[in-house]
């Protein structure tokens, strides 16, 4: 089967623009990517983060689902330890009623924030991650309208509205743990390749496939990853636009976060020799360049990892740069075009 290509968007705050614009840009980008033919459009969850301002994926999904008609829409992901599994089930049953058969529920175990913020979200922040497997089980049953295990204290509680379709659950992760949970429950799994620069990705995918227990909806494992990529009409343009991301990562490694700067502003910073060397390394390793070059690197990686799905996340200070990048990659990667 052809490789399914999707989008992850993180609602990045851009220097010089109000943060609310990042949310509106996400909705507009989803509509653009639907027209281009991408399979899924996922949004992330982060908290207390001055760069990644998408804090409520369930709300963004509703807005996107209501203004699109074909593309699948979902979370990448809902950080389940912050919430009641039952409440998440209700939210995604409502989302499925808005866009029947088009909703994905990607789940993560990481806090998506710092420790203090995790406690602000849930007073039992330290204990909740240990309940992740049982919460996944309960959530899966509530979404499908199936009874919880015998003796469960909430066995008679149901998540409404029920319907003929059920959101597709994914487990997301950047370590072995999520891979094992996905394999145990027979769920699709996506590794955050962009988050670790691929470190641990092959091992996690191997563990997932080796331990996979077939489920009625997914008799075979469904493996995916998410990569960071940026395409432009020329190599020079692509590298120019990438400067914003490169400087942001350099400062992130020092614990400094802020809105994404324009590439001209980022390039004007007086980098030292060590910083220049680090940026040069980033440029060598990043999926950045013309559409054909970046697409070929994506295809090569997908073949090497034997993937069924791949999502792309792109940061750029100007929205038209991101729109153009997804257009160029769609030409190369989406067979219907």
UniProtKB/TrEMBL annotation:
Which residues belong to any copy of the Luciferase-like domain? 15-303
Identify one Gene Ontology CC term for this UniProt entry. Answer: cytosol
Organism's domain of life? Bacteria
Enumerate the SUPFAM superfamilies for this protein: Bacterial luciferase-like (SSF51679)
The Swiss-Prot or TrEMBL record describes its family as follows: To bacterial alkanal monooxygenase alpha and beta chains.
- Pfam families in alphabetical order: Bac_luciferase
* GO molecular function list: oxidoreductase activity, acting on paired donors, with incorporation or reduction of molecular oxygen
What name goes with this protein? Answer: Luciferase-like monooxygenase
The record's section on InterPro entries has: Bact_Lucif_Oxidored, CmoO-like, Luciferase-like_dom, Luciferase-like_sf
């Amino acid at each position: 089967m052809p490789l399914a290509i999707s989008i992850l968007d993180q609602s990045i705050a851009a220097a010089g623009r109000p943060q609310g614009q990042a949310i509106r840009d996400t909705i507009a980008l989803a509509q653009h990517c639907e027209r281009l033919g991408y399979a899924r459009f996922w949004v992330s969850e982060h908290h207390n983060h001055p760069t990644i301002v998408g804090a409520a994926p369930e709300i963004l999904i509703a807005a996107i689902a209501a203004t699109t008609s074909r593309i699948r829409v979902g979370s990448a992901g809902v950080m389940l330890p912050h919430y009641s599994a039952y409440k998440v089930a209700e939210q995604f049953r409502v989302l499925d009623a808005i866009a029947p058969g088009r909703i994905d529920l990607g789940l993560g175990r990481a806090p998506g924030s710092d420790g203090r913020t995790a406690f602000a979200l849930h007073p039992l922040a330290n204990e909740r991650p240990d309940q992740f497997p049982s919460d996944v089980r309960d959530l899966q049953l509530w979404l499908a309208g199936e009874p919880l295990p015998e003796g469960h204290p909430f066995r008679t509680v149901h998540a409404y509205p029920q319907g003929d379709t059920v959101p597709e659950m994914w487990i997301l992760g950047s370590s072995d743990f999520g891979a094992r949970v996905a394999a145990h429950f027979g769920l699709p799994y996506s590794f955050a390749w962009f988050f670790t620069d691929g470190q641990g990705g092959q091992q996690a995918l191997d563990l997932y496939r080796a331990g996979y227990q077939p489920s009625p909806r997914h008799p075979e494992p469904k493996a995916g990853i998410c990569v960071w990529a940026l395409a432009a009409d020329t190599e020079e343009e692509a590298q120019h636009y990438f400067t914003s991301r490169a400087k942001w990562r350099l400062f992130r490694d020092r614990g400094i976060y802020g809105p994404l700067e324009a590439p001209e502003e980022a390039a004007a910073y007086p980098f030292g020799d060590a910083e220049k060397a680090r940026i040069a390394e980033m440029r060598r390793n990043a999926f950045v360049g013309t559409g054909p070059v970046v697409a070929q690197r994506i295809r090569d990686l997908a073949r090497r990892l034997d993937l069924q799905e791949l999502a792309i996340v792109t940061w750029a200070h100007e929205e038209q740069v991101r729109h153009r990048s997804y257009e160029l990659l769609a030409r190369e990667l989406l067979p219907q075009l």
